[in-house]
Amino acid sequence: MWKVLLVEDETRVRRLIKEIIDWEKFGFVIIGEAANGIEALKVIQEEFPHFILCDIMMPLMDGIELLRKAREQGFEGPFVMLTCMNEFELARQAVEYGATSYMLKLSLNVDTIREMLDKVSRELSKAATPARQLSYRDFELLYWYTWRQIHGMEDADPEQRDLLDRISTSGFTHVDLCLVLHGARGIDEEDLIRSGLIYSKETAIIHKFRMHGCTTFFSWVSRSEHPVENDLAENNAIGYPAVCAYSVALSELESTWKDMIRNIEESWYECSKSRKAYSTTDFNIQQPILSSQTLWNMEREILQAFERRDKISCIRQLSNMFDEMKKNHTSMTVVMEMAERLDNRFGAISGHGKAQTDNWLSAASHEELRLFLEKRIDDWLTKWIKTTTLPSGHPEINRIVDYIQNHYDKEITLKLMAEHVALDEHYLSGLFSKKMGCTLIHYLHKVRIDQARFYLLQSTLTVGEIAERVGFGNVAYFVKIFKRWVEQTPSEFRKYHMSNG
């Protein structure tokens, strides 16, 4: 049975799709449902579906963003988009990103779904042509498990060991690997064959695994075809950094691939386009030593400068952070995730929400990513400043609001603010309420609680640590004020939103 993931935010439509046809009769079984892209990514990682049927327009993460993320994480199965009459441009964009096809919701019936399933089944069968009783999905799972282990995301899994045994006993004991850092531009096996980095053999099975602007090509042959050490061609350069390893024993796949990734990361940091054969003796890269807390502190300083709309300080802090990551050779995956997290937060702070990152996260070098992120900072701040109106018509009140926005984590009282703008304390109290529609303390609590929400959802800080970071010296008082504003305790708020995506 081919496993199907159904992604659709309308319960009525999901029910129609499930009930309109006997899926198992056509060789399919629906193993999971999701109402948005965020939920779907979790199901993909846990259930490994073969095929995804997905709506385009959904809350939190739409179908196109899900398609892009899923492809980046290695999912290469069929992806059929559900669309409405007025969404043809989005459907076309989805096909450009690698969707198999799209279907109009209004045309959903037994015949159209049967026709779509026939097409998907042929595509899956073609991709999974038995390789000595193995399917493409077996190899795909092996790559995904191995990649996650290399990056410390999970421990060895019994299913992975079973995969290794089945692949080995099927005759595939050695593999050629070629890891290419191409950025957003993309590359395929024909490019590598023409450049002599991998060799075209009728009996070879070639797969590719793409993540963060890097693609690893795996070329498998059975044990009956004796592995031969290939010489790395120096002609017909592909113009991208590449590392190749030939005749790698299956038992050495994880360690070799891990070292190749670290090797290509060296090119990413140095903006090098060199190509070389992998060797365990010619490479000595310093292990990362930057702790997650150190990186978080650096991110916080960047965000605080952004909140102050201090572009010069924000870019300077970003440059310092990138220098430290380069000095300590921080994993490219960690750097990419940090960049995406910062960009999302810039959008939230500036009030413009999350923007499509397209392919900029696939920057072909560390320096290219830094320059991209600098431009994003400039773009976000420009949009923010253009759309910002002063909070009141009174200059002193505007100064106080600006002070609170940038120093909410410090001690702030009516008396201190009166001194800050050189006004009488009692006069300021009435003036602030008149101009802002609430008391100064009420406004201060709003700013602090908004920031606390962010920390609860975007960090692993404890409630006590969050209370301190947003300016509450007493945890019990923080919990009391938070519940007054949100109608949930901080712990209840975090648990509810984490469990509901």
Count of helical regions: 20
Elements, N to C (H/E): EHEHEHEHEHHHEHEEEHEHHHHHHHHHHH
Uncertain ranges: 128-132, 224-236, 280-286
Which structural class matches the secondary elements? alpha/beta
- Number of strand elements: 10
The total number of structural domains is: 4
Strand content: 5-15%
For the CA atoms, what is the radius of gyration?
A: 27 Å
Give, in spatial order, the strands making up the sheet with the most strands: 2-1-3-4-5
Compute the average pLDDT.
80
Distance between the termini: 29 Å
- Helix content range of the residues, please? 40-55%
* Global shape: globular
- Main sheet record: 5 strands, parallel
Write the SSE topology:
Layout: E1 2-7, H1 11-19, E2 28-34, H2 37-47, E3 51-55, H3 63-72, E4 79-83, H4 88-97, E5 101-104, H5 110-127, H6 136-150, H7 158-169, E6 174-181, H8 189-195, E7 205-211, E8 214-221, E9 242-249, H9 253-270, E10 275-277, H10 292-307, H11 311-327, H12 332-349, H13 366-387, H14 395-407, H15 414-421, H16 425-436, H17 440-458, H18 463-469, H19 475-486, H20 490-499
Parallel strand pairs: 1-2, 1-3, 3-4, 4-5, 9-10
Antiparallel strand pairs: 6-8, 6-9, 7-8
